[in-house]
Write a structure and sequence with these properties.
The chain has eleven helices and 14 strands. Helices cover about 35% and strands about 20% of the residues. The longest helix has 14 residues, at about 235-250. α1 (about 25-35) packs parallel to α2 (about 50-60). The relative contact order is 0.13. The strands form four sheets. A six-stranded mixed beta sheet has the order 1-4-3-2-5-11, sandwiched between helices. A four-stranded mixed beta sheet has the order 6-12-7-8. Strands 9-10 form a two-stranded antiparallel sheet.
Length: about 325
């Protein structure tokens, strides 16, 4: 069953997979505040989670903050990406927003995303600018504005950790990959490539992006006027770390991605060579972190992942975050 505000299908359908025990009320509220009054939300969840999620979704629909809401129960053992494929088949709108419960969209983000994708036929998909939450030490920092590959075929988040007010954060660029935590695509394109191919684990989204860009003969981009908080502080560890580990061990071919790190940096008017951490990347780009702070330790590890930098960062992390980091290192 579903609730809907009328006979006309919304142009945008938001697909959200909720597998955790807690109801992502903050994600729902942020989505509504981002301009979802004309959007349908389909929430894929275990059957036992349907009642509390439905209560939150229907409350937003009744107040006009969503155009429609429905729950799609996850089958026992169903892969989350297979559930997204099934939800996309049942959606009606021209656009799909693939959204993670870890993302809090900021006000006005949805109209900005939808307008740009509708206008630019060269785009295969579009992300908002993904930021760290406020309240952490130092300035608010960029978590993801696009993915690039270095000369060894390894994956990086371009300018990860740069303060969000930096002029480089306001540029529009073309990328070969996108981030699935908040990804706007055309429904017809998603269905034409068969959606996600489940079973690839951490490579599922990267595989989808490469197939979608090839089929569309397009690129991905980030819309800087659309912003969102990505709550997962270990996101880049998981995404880039997995890909780079597989490349380093010869499990992935290094030429799967176009080597574009240098061209992206040079197009921004920066010199490409050795970073202050003596790693390949933009030269002399100040990240403005106080030496000895957790931010400084995190930036050093992200931009120069050496054992000593990792040990120093682990020492500074709170115990609960240190446990997560150690698990990621083991994996």
């Amino acid at each position: 069953p579903q609730c809907s505000s009328g006979a006309v299908s919304p142009a945008l359908t938001v697909l959200l997979v909720c597998e955790c025990d807690e109801t992502p009320s903050a994600c729902f509220d942020a989505l509504a505040g981002a301009g979802a009054g004309d959007a349908m939300l389909i929430c894929c969840c275990p059957p036992e989670r349907e009642a509390p999620l439905r209560a939150v979704g229907e409350a937003l629909w009744r107040t006009g903050r969503l155009a429609g809401f429905r729950c799609l129960p996850l089958a026992l053992g169903e892969d989350r990406h297979a559930a997204v494929n099934r939800a996309a088949q049942e959606a009606d709108g021209a656009f799909l927003l693939l959204l993670s419960p870890d993302v809090l969209l900021e006000p006005g983000s949805l109209p900005a995303l939808s307008a740009r994708l509708a206008k630019d036929s060269s785009l295969a998909g579009l992300n908002p600018l993904l930021l760290a939450p406020e309240g952490e030490s130092g300035p608010r920092r960029i978590r993801h504005l696009g993915c690039v590959a270095d000369s060894r075929g390894q994956l990086h988040y371009l300018y990860e950790g740069l303060p969000d007010g930096h002029p480089l954060a306001a540029r529009r660029r073309a990328f070969q990959l996108a981030h699935e935590a908040a990804l706007l695509v055309r429904r017809e394109d998603f269905l034409a490539v068969g959606g996600f191919r489940p079973g690839l684990e951490g490579l599922t989204v990267l595989d989808f992006c490469l197939r979608l860009a090839a089929a569309r003969q397009g690129v991905f981009s980030t819309e800087p006027t659309a912003r969102a908080v990505l709550c997962d502080g270990f996101d880049s560890w998981k995404k880039c770390g997995l890909w780079n580990s597989l490349v380093q061990r010869g499990r992935l071919k290094p030429d799967l991605l176009r080597r574009d790190y240098h061209s992206q940096v040079q197009d921004d008017g920066l010199e490409y060579g050795l970073t202050p951490w003596l790693e390949e990347g933009p030269c002399n780009l100040a990240f403005e972190a106080e030496e000895g702070s957790p931010d400084a330790a995190w930036l050093r590890w992200r931009h120069a992942p050496e054992p000593a930098a990792l040990l120093h960062l682990l020492y500074l992390l709170p115990p609960e975050r240190r446990a997560w980091a150690l698990n990621l290192c083991r994996e």
